[in-house]
Specification:
Elements (H helix, E strand, L loop, with lengths): L49 E13 L1 H20 L6 E8 L2 E4 L19 E3 L7 E3 L3 E7 L9 H20 L12 E3 L2 E11 L2 E9 L19 E2 L2 H8 L8 H4 L1 H20 L1 E5 L11
Parallel strand pairs: 1-2, 1-11, 3-4, 8-10
Antiparallel strand pairs: 2-6, 3-5, 6-9, 7-8, 8-9
Helix pairs in contact: 2-5
């Protein structure tokens, strides 16, 4: 269960789809593809896919509070459009975060291995579901702001769909066979959790989202019980690839550093996100989010 951050501290005062794809059965809809158009009158309007504004900052390390604020602002704007039946575009924010701990609505201090009044990192109580998690550099975070009226009005389906995105990425880009775990949310390789998912939905508009550990420093997870799960660990793509010693399309990343892994994971995440949710991405200037008028 996951989200984004800032360096000012806000202290505290599903069922699995085993072998099924979460992609909607839509025989009339064309196969989704990852487009980067910014033209409002492009040929994308000739397709049946819903368009999605993409604010892609995947190489930037963004404070959590900043990204959290962007999400809430977009959701409030979209609510007005929903009320007027004018909500025509979804949104996606892609970032990395400065080191931070975030708490969900189900969080308990028992899952913190430190005094909540003396957190080693910025600590935020959020409105997403789930327990405590960590975000930091090397972890790709996706914040989809989707109108589920155009997908499926089912929160369990939505979380399974987010898991499906990650499962496809791990297999197609890194030859890692990932799975779900009965009764838990997230994506696992063996007993290690690589992706955390935590969402909030208002008027069927989603926010918060998923975090995938690519080349993340995992040591901050030792100060918490991630997602409140005591008997399983946390892993990263980098850690698993180093330990596997098997040839893959990422075999040359050692020479180029962690940046190559991030690039590969980012490209695959966007592709599979579009595929699962049948969306066309329309890349936007990040300055729109950072505008003082927002």
């Amino acid at each position: 269960m996951t989200s984004s951050f800032n360096y000012s501290t806000h202290l505290i005062p599903p069922r699995p789809i085993t072998s099924q794809s979460t992609q909607r059965p839509t025989s009339q809809r064309p196969t989704a593809s990852h487009h980067t158009t910014t033209e409002p009158n492009s040929s994308l309007q000739q397709t049946n896919k819903r368009r999605c504004k993409c604010y892609d900052m995947y190489k930037q390390v963004v404070p959590f509070a900043e990204a959290w604020s962007w999400q809430k602002s977009i959701v409030e704007e979209r609510k007005l459009l929903v009320d007027g039946n004018e909500d025509g575009l979804d949104s996606l924010i892609v970032v990395q975060h400065q080191p931070v701990y975030t708490l969900g609505t189900a969080s308990s201090e028992e899952n913190l291995n430190f005094d909540i009044k003396d957190s080693p990192l910025p600590l935020y109580q959020t409105e997403r579901g789930g327990e405590v998690t960590y975000h930091g550099p090397g972890q790709l975070v996706l914040y989809p702001i989707l109108n589920l009226r155009f997908q499926k009005m089912d929160l369990h389906w939505y979380m399974r769909a987010l898991e499906e995105v990650v499962i496809r990425v791990l297999f197609s880009a890194f030859s890692l066979k990932a799975s779900r775990v009965e009764g838990l949310t997230g994506v696992w390789v063996g007993d290690k959790k690589l992706a955390a998912i935590g969402i909030r939905v208002s008027k069927w508009l989603t926010y918060h989202g998923l975090a995938l550990n690519v080349s993340t420093d995992l040591s901050p997870f030792s100060r918490i019980i991630p997602c409140g799960i005591k008997d399983r660990g946390v892993g990263s793509i980098k850690e698993l690839l180093i330990g596997s010693n098997r040839p893959s399309s990422t075999s040359g990343y050692h020479e180029e550093g962690d940046g190559k892994l991030i690039d590969i994971a980012h490209e695959s995440l966007l592709k599979e996100f579009c595929e699962v949710f049948q969306l066309e991405l329309c890349h936007q200037s990040v300055s729109i989010l950072r505008s003082p008028d927002r």
